[in-house]
User: Fold this.
Amino acid sequence: MEPGGSAAAPRVIAHRGASARWPEHSRRAYEQALADGADGLECDVRLTADDVPVCWHDADLDRTSDGTGPVRAHTLDRLRTLRLRGRTPDEDQPGGLLTVAELLDLALGAGRPVRLAIELKHPSPYGFAAEDAVVDLLEAAGWDPVTGSVGAVRVSLMSFHPGSLRHLLDRVPAGHLMVLLDDLDVRAAVAEHAPTRLLTPLAVVALRRLQRQAERLADGVVGGVGPSVAFLVAHPERVARWRADGALVRVWTVDGAADLELCRQARVDEVTSNVPDRLLRLLGR
Assistant:
């Protein structure tokens, strides 16, 4: 990864596209982000029943579409029929789902340099198969492992899960990998993101162990670190050290002026935002 933002102008990466305006991960959201001038696009990855990597955050379909059940239980053709949910019915996107390959094509069609930040989601029912599928499609598209680029699109792969990043290290240079970090308490995070998960004392210990392993990867093992705003607030000295050591620092999720100013003062390289147009205006772009 190549650090290059500054206190004045961190790069702006569109979080699931312009996701405050259009349904997250929809074609319209990504097209809007590119039209607004975002420096990059971010997506999450899930595998379909027929092993196609698609842009989707949750393990199931219920929150963001008119479908139901696990993403993994449906083929790509079935997922193509879904209506992606916006904030109002007028913003819904029939058939708006994108595969990761289609998102790459969209970025390549922008006619300018674009960053593509791809997050591998865990836990998953298929181990690290999504990691392999994404690297396969990048290689098929002509990805250069030295620069991390496909044409004018520079790709980074990221995850909260240390096992995901260690798996990727077998095929991807460390400089193109990013570990994601948050400052949430394990119990609070599970209650928010996986309320049906049985959180036993052993599970808490295991999750905290994963957190510690992920933080150790930030110390020079991978080239990028992706702290949340909450992590930056709680541990500014650690973020400053990672940046001083040459890591690319990309903070998520930055939607307001106060958080953007915090990131500018911390001299982070990139910020991820649901409202890339707003941040670009605040940056005078």
Q: What stands out?
A: The two ends are 24 Å apart (CA to CA). The chain has a mean pLDDT of 92. The longest strand covers residues 40-47.
